[in-house]
Design brief:
two-stranded antiparallel sheet, 2 strands, mainly alpha
């Protein structure tokens, strides 16, 4: 309950807890997680480039019909092989 920001109140919900209590609960949860070794920092993943064997010309026309737009987009694809 103390992790859901809706309990602070918004346009649909009245506030149930104050912001100070909400922040204290968040800090306590983080402290406990650190103590137990449960904090995981995201690793920097190397960006991988996948080689492609085609090129696509830029879109020039727009169609209201999504099927016609897709057909047009696919017609712009050129194979490099």
């Amino acid at each position: 309950m103390l992790q859901n920001k809706h309990y602070l109140g918004d346009e649909f919900y009245p506030p149930i807890i104050d912001e100070e209590t909400f922040e204290k609960a968040r800090e306590e949860k983080r402290k406990r997680a650190e103590k137990l070794g449960r904090i995981r920092e995201p690793k920097d993943e190397p960006k991988t480039d996948y080689p492609v064997k085609f090129k696509a010309k830029p879109l020039v026309q727009k169609y209201e019909d999504p099927y016609k737009q897709a057909e047009y987009a696919y017609s712009l694809i050129e194979s490099e092989v």
